[in-house]
Amino acid sequence: MDQTVKLLLVDDEPLALRRIRGFKLAARGFEIVGEAENGVQALQYVERLKPDIVVTDIGMPLMDGLELLQQLQQQPSPPKVVLLTCYEDFDKVQIALRFGAGDYLTKVMLSEDEFVSALQRTAASLRKEHEGTELIVRILLQELLLFPSENGLANLKQAGFAHDIYAIAIIRTALPLQDACAEELFAAEEEDHQRRCLPVRMSPDTWCLYFYSKQRENDASFYGWYSRQCGRIVGGLRGRKRIGDYVIAAGAVYHRPGDLPMAYQRAAAQCDAGFYTPSWVIAREDETPVFTSFPQERFRMLLADMGNAVQRGSGADAGALVSEWAHSIGTAFHPAPVQVRQMALAIHTQLEAFEWERLGETGQEVLQQKFKLAAESALHASVIVHEAKQMADMLMQSRPTASASGSMRKEIKQAMSLIAANYAGIELGETARQVSLSPSWFAALFRTATGQSFHDYVQEVRLNQARVLLRTTDLKVYEIAEQVGIPNSRYFSRLFSEHVGLTPLDYRKNDRM
């Protein structure tokens, strides 16, 4: 409820109205927004002015105060009513109190203090009711936006929450924003008492901000006020480091309560439009994002080359490939956010096997964690790209491992490249033929160079790739088994469990918790 309480005075006696106008109500937090001569006129003013309290005489022509009270009580969210009575009206007062009147005063010898005290009691009761009503409204609004239905809209209207001028903004944060912090940050500045912002948490990291005007007529300056509020909120978010990355999408202004679910869905979709813009730039509903997919075959080859570099222990080559990918995001290609995140997680998994040999180096662990966190939660491409470049720099500064020394024969290096590119269907005999060695001699050289048999090495590559697919896709286990070259899903599950220590389904479940 607004700090200033709005009053509508209803009395057919001009002297009575003049007397009340003479009270110092503004200093006590009350504002007279209108005056009516009878109940019929008062109903029209209530519809237009939305007063918090109606102060009405009981005895009036056309429609008296008692009938006015009954009419008001039929409205979804009626104002409180304070009755002005004469001594002989007490029978009517008792009826009025049963009908829900908030208080009553006798007009004879009415003092300012007595009048203000009655208003304060009524306002306190109204504030208490509003607190409970607002909680209910938040729940109903959340249900309507998540599960649109005619019944949900009717429930919201019945709670008195339906506006002719409103807009929805969506805020997503990489880390959850605490309720108390959100309420403080999202509360609209009260330029007047006709506009408000109601924040509703939709998920741990997503808030819906419902901006609305109480005016029934056209509010020409509403959009400007709404835009300023969004700008102010962005400024507040920039100063809060604990929430990490964030994005805000501001929807258009709507005029029909029935459009609420559509307004929310459009604003939510706009969050992706801000993926390639700075975090402080608000994504608007009239801005349609255009995404260009990263070529699947190109990324598959890049990932295979990266895996090959990791197996060779070549940080320079692995880092160069990570850097190549990072520099292409947002320049040569603008993939949809979900594709960028999946690619980043696949790269992170590929790099997990890299053997660091910089003595005393712990920075790579921090960088790996930051890169994974960015891949999982960043709301802007620039955050993921930055962490990828940091990882690339660290890789390129690392010393080669022993397996990357010049002692490895070129035939074995060539074979490792073939495995990385065609791990699903590769065979020892065909690989030996392609590197111009006999199968037996090639097998012996391969074991000496890698410390593993050809079969075990290929199996490890397949299982590592299966980990990538389990983490970055929704493919079924048997589909992943076939894709990595182990068509027997039961055998694949047993191998995976021995290699990772978890079943494929448990691995996927743990990774997504």
Notes on the structure:
The chain is α/β, with parallel strands linked by helices. It folds into four domains: 5-129, Rossmann fold (3-Layer(aba) Sandwich), CATH 3.40.50; 163-284, Alpha-Beta Plaits (2-Layer Sandwich); 290-402, Up-down Bundle (Zinc Finger, Delta Prime, domain 3); 408-513, Orthogonal Bundle (Arc Repressor Mutant, subunit A), CATH 1.10.10. It is 53% helix and 13% strand. It has 21 helices and ten strands. The chain has helices at 14-21, 39-49, 65-73, 90-98, 112-146, 150-158, 179-186, 222-238, 260-270, 296-312, 315-328, 337-351, 363-377, 381-397, 410-421, 428-434, 439-450, 454-472, 477-484, 489-500, 504-511; strands at residues 5-10, 30-36, 53-57, 80-85, 103-106, 165-173, 195-203, 206-213, 246-254, 283-284. The strands form two sheets. The protein has a five-stranded parallel beta sheet, sandwiched between helices. α13 (363-377) packs antiparallel against α14 (381-397). It is elongated and about 115 Å long.
